[in-house]
Amino acid sequence: MKSHLGRRAFSAMELHTLFNGYIYCDERQPREQPKHWHFWLPLIAYYTGAYSDEIGNLQLTDIIKIDGVHGFSFTTHGKIQHRFVPIHTALWQAGFEQYIQFVKRENQSRLLFDLPSKSGRYSEKVRIWFSGEGERLGYLQKCGLPNIDQQGHKTAISSLRLNFEQQVRIAAIQRANKPAFHYLMGLKDEQLTQSPVPNLLKQIIAPIRVINSNVHWQRFIERHS
Q1: How far out from the chain centre does Cα 192 lie?
Q2: Which residues, including other chains, have CB under 8 Å from residue 203's CB and lie 6 or more apart?
């Protein structure tokens, strides 16, 4: 899938490579300075379709429970609408609850507290780490993946939103509820007079494919301890 910016979704093989890269395995790179957000941001982006700035802005108070469903409350600006996105099972299995408790013990209020902002935005730091800049290699290149493929299409951290879009579109259509798809993407829909019920949203994101079931934050901690 190609966006208006010339970006495309990652292929199944590329996703496998990304989520089996050194961040999610046991190898530590020379001169690497691991951050908790390196582990969590790509995962949250893949399982929520959120942009880097949205994820970077998440406070612990934005992790809420509605009708028995835990989720992220994304509040942003511009054309993207406020939305509630259930927390995918894979995030819990990756140690998300343990990480939340760790953030609390650190007396931090922002979920990805070690992700710095530049001019009030987080996306620039994420872009450089993920895609590289100049001679500086990003996570993509260190995983052996190019920024631009042979057809000239780009991949970036926002490509994970396109992977989310592909999968939830299908799940929403199967449930004959395209407005719920628009809601999860933060898009306006004239047919949507109120937010879809959390359980429906949970059902729609449930089929998102788990790339690496061995991913766990504790493994990441042990890798750089």
Answers
A1: 25
A2: 171, 175
**Model confidence pLDDT, tens digit, residues 100-109:** 999 999 999 9
Residue 183 has which token pair?
Answer: 């809601």
Query: Is the Cα torsion angle 110, 27, 210, 157 positive or negative in sign?
Result: positive
Two structure tokens written together for 114 = 């070690």
Q: Which helix (DSSP H) or strand (DSSP E) does residue 63 occupy?
A: strand 63-66
How many helices (H) and strands (E) the chain has is answered by: 11, 3
Distance CA 10, CA 6 (A): 13
d(CA 134, CA 119): 21
pTM: 0.94
User: How confident is the model over 178-191, as pLDDT tens digits?
Assistant: 999 999 999 988 77
How does pLDDT run across 108-147, given as a tens digit for each residue? Answer: 999 999 999 987 789 999 999 999 988 889 999 999 998 8
Interval 139-165: pLDDT, tens? 999 999 988 877 778 899 999 999 999
| Reduced DSSP (H G I as helix, E B as strand, rest coil) percent helix, strand, coil of the chain, to 5 | 45, 10, 45
Question: CA angle 12-31-159, nearest 5°?
Answer: 25
